[in-house]
Structure formats: C-alpha cells, structure tokens
Amino acid sequence: MTHDEVFEKVRDVLVDALAVDDDEVQPEATLTSDLGAESIDFLDIVFKIEQVFGFKIEQGELFPDNVMQDPEYVQDGKVTDAGMAALKERLPHADFSKLDANPDVNKVGEIFTVDALVKFVERKLGS
Amino acid sequence: MRWMWIDRVIELVPRQKMVAVKNITLAEEHLHDHFPATDTLTAAPVMPASLMIEGMAQTAGVLVGHAEGFKEKVILAKVSDATIDEDAGPGMTIRYTAEITQIDEKGAATKGTIELLDHADAEVGYRQIGAVDLMFSHIDNNRSGIEFPEHNFVFGDAFKTLLDSSGIDYPK
Fold first, then answer.
1. Are A35 and A24 in contact (CB under 8 A)?
2. 3-class DSSP state of A89
3. What is the ipTM of this complex?
4. What are the structural domains of chain A?
5. pTM summary value
C-alpha cells in the first residue's frame, strides 16, 4: 500500500470518527486541537483503523495509557525528561516537536497528528 | 422499574447479538407532553427519539456487559450514528437488534436497527424505522486512569430483573 493510499484510508477513518470534512484532515493537523478529538474518539479511531487495515492494536500501543499517571513522568503539570523519553520510546510514530518546546501535560495530545497516525499504520503494515 | 427502556429480551447470542422489545404505552407520562394539544393542533403522543437511542443503548449495553460476564462497567461513550425516520406511538412495539462489531479490553462498538410493529397493521410485521451505532467504554480500563468504585454500579437490580424475567442466563 502506498503512502497516499494509507493517508486516504486514515483520512476516511478520521472523517467518519470525528465528523470533520475531508479538507480539514491535513498531515500536520493535530487530532485534538485541530480535529476536535475527545478521549473516547481515540478508542473509535483505534477500532476503525483495526477494521480498515486488518491488524490488532494493543492497548497503549497507539495512544499512551498510563504514562501520564506515573508521578515519575509528570511533575507540576509538566512532562519530565524521563516521561518524555518514555513517550518517545513507546510512540516512535508521534510528532514531539511542539511538546519538546512546551512539555505541558495538557499538550500531550498535540503529539498525535494525522501524519503520526499515517506513520504508525505504515510501520504496522511493514512489520 | 425506573429508567428501563426495554421490556423484554427476546434473543441473546453471547458476544454477537441481542434482540429486545419495548411496548409503548399511554401510561408513560412523558407521552402526554410529547406532544400536547395546542389551540390549533390535537395531541400527538410519540416516543421521543432520544429514548429510542436509550433503548438501543440498554440493548447493546446488556449485550456488551454479558460478553464479559457483567464484570466490566460498560458505559455508553459515543453515539456514532443515529437515524430515526418515523414516529412510534402508544400501542406500538419497538424491536431493537444490536450486534457487536468490535470488542476488546478497552470497550466495544455496536451496530443496531430499530423496527416498529403497528398492531393495527400487524400483517405488515416489523419494519425498520431507524439505525443506531454506538460505542461503549469499559471504564476501569479507561485511558485517563481514573478509578471508579469496585461495585458494578452499571448493571444493577433492574437489569437483573429484566434478564430473569426474559429467561436469559447470566453469571450470578
């Protein structure tokens, strides 16, 4: 499957799950800020990607589950260096450029861009 | 039995499908306000569409809860899609059919159809008047890590009575 084909399928998933328009789903768009995804939408997106691409996504594989609850990883509302390292190790597909600049725990959602989702799918399909 | 919007479970295929019915009755007080007569219009008692969605949520929710022996706290998380094309009034029967399309430790997605039987036109049988797709979260496995009470507050006595009176087996 080509990069464009993966992108188109991911775009269709996001249009369906988030009720957004096709042209809003740009590679650099973040799922939360730009496309309005809420926590339950992440489960919807996981289910739909599993169906469309035919692979299983383990809990926490695409979106982190318990990193944000670990006091070693989050202190005073900021993601610690250890937390950032853990996130990067677990989520190599994500885009950390904004979070590196401002490690506010409320901004963790910014690492999930459309492009990060496409990269995740490509990595899963390739492995 | 408060806030029960299904009267009987007709069929349950574990982890796959559940069918339930709801008989609409004029004794339901909200029908008198939905919609009352005006100076120019006569009263039009019809079941609110929001309560049809609740009926489907109860049907699909019991199916999802039954799949894990009612150990999980199953919470309606998202109405993915809902279309209801026709009104349903007193003396009619609604049939909800819910099917699980996906289920795992995090939650479940279901697809469902709503059918109507008008007893005044019974030979027509049930005909589809709507479709409702839902998502449920197993909230103890939620991403936010919030803890909830140990006691399963979702599936209380009302649901047990419903299953018992419908002759449906479930882990006790």
1. yes
2. helix
3. 0.77
4. 1-57+112-127 (1.10.1200.10), 64-111 (no CATH)
5. 0.87
